[in-house]
């Protein structure tokens, strides 16, 4: 005669195994679904990035530095593109306050004793003196 408890345990194990197979299949379908939704977005993004680099008049490293200089003059100085002349990497018309073709110019600070250049101006002035 069969023991009902043993049969119940065997049946419970079979149901667990079947449930685990179903859950694994659902997870695989879910992952595949998310990947299929993400692939077109990634392809379009990659195409825009590659197209942007190909359309850029500068080398890829200079193009990246140009894009990093976009937010403001502090970031342009941080990546080493300030001051920038019109047509050079790092030049954005929004950074050129006086519209003279030079963006992110060194600041001139006026005091009672005359004009005072910022650190950049001091370095440039010291480079010009013999």
UniProtKB/TrEMBL annotation:
Pfam families on file: Excalibur
Domain of life of the source: Bacteria
Transmembrane segments: 34-55
Alphabetized UniProt keyword annotations: Membrane, Transmembrane, Transmembrane helix
Residue span, Excalibur calcium-binding domain: 69-105
Name recorded for this polypeptide: Excalibur calcium-binding domain-containing protein
